[in-house]
Amino acid sequence: MYWCVTGLPSSRLTAAAISLDNASGRIAGNRIGYVRYAGTGGSLASGIRASIILGDTLKVFNNFIGGISRVDYVPGATDNSIYALGIWLFKQAGGGGLTQAFHNTIVLPAAAQPVSYASAGFYLSGGSSGAFPAELRNNILINRLSAVAGQFAFAVVDGNSVRGNLTSNHNLLLAPGTNGAVGQTNRELNAARVTSATLADWRTNSGYDLASVSQPVTFVNEAAGDLRLAGTSFSDPALTGPPLAAVPRDIDGRLRSLSAPYLGASEGGVIQATAAANARLIGLELYPNPARGYVTLRFRQPLAGRAQVTVFDGLGRTVHTFAPPAGAATGHAQVPLALPALAPGSYQVRATVPGPGGSPITATGRLLLLP
């Protein structure tokens, strides 16, 4: 499900794509692409806001969260709130249950100017309401915001003054902006906050994320909310973690690797779909079929670029190749194939077209040649 939320200046409530009070269950497979609060009121913009019922569990798996922004607000000098958040977990009366946040991709986008408030990709609140547990595993948490002096843009915050409530490891944590910091602990009123600029500092100060990484990541189209890995990130072993039995598939329904699944919501870049699904995407058609020596191949190109057609015989050997003109536009293409030299029989015809993130998409159809 794709979410887009805007808060109004007159509202005093949090603008959140998903907001739950003393809940449990699953939040999975969401694409949160735009949450914005504009106004002078002291309200927050959040992708997921949740408190968890005592004795139960909220499972937050395989979500894309991006486009979070809070504008037109300058908090007071003693204001302890965080005003832009990917995931915000808190406790209220009757709450205190466990949250498992596994395989989410959270990216807070950069703003044109440094913002006047604190922000975080993931925030486990502390304070007078009491501590409660959360597990943070195999996520990508990136906060690209920059902050003015005295404020910070965090990847992760454990607001409790005592360690042990948060279990966090095998994540990617990145906060590359001005006054960006990988993490902070002790974010309670009247507590001495401990800010960790780097992953090494965070490990020392919190004891968390000993097997996590902090490095740049390339996505298919971050601005458009497509947070699947692309480029060299798609094949980077540093962006993999241990398999989690609770999350066997990714946001697109693909089975995850049983040995080293990718961090975040997506198991890599372009969807490795089945042949039938690719055929539907490309719209592969052969006609006439059966044919006598000459056939037309019709298919759809989702992206501009060079396509290629390959014909295989019954033994899997390449018997014919053809490349339509380079730079073909998106849309439907028709390719005439002259195959009079091929013996009658059954053949496989494969069309390969450009796909998102630089990875090709292929579809194969069966062709029967008559005498």
Class by SSE composition: mainly beta
Number of strands: 28
The dominant shape is elongated
Count the helices. How many?
Answer: 2
Main beta sheet, described?
7 strands, parallel
Number of domains: 2
Mean pLDDT: 86
Helix content: under 10%
| Gyration radius from CA atoms, angstroms | 25 Å
Low-confidence stretches are 5-12
Order of helices and strands: EEEEEEEEEEEEEEEEEEEHEEHEEEEEEE
Distance separating the two termini: 52 Å
- Percent in strands: 35-45%
Question: What would you say about this model in short?
Answer:
The chain is mainly beta. The protein has two helices and 28 strands.
Describe what you observe in this structure:
With 371 residues, the chain is mainly beta. Helices cover 4% and strands 41% of the residues. Strands 1, 4, 7, 8, 11, 14 and 17 form a seven-stranded parallel β-sheet that branches. A seven-stranded mixed β-sheet has the order 2-5-9-12-15-18-19, with helices on one face. The chain has a five-stranded parallel β-sheet with strand order 3-6-10-13-16, with no helix packed on it.
Provide keyphrases for this structure.
single chain, 371 residues, mainly beta, Immunoglobulin-like, 2 domains, seven-stranded parallel sheet, seven-stranded mixed sheet, 2 helices, 4% helix, 41% strand
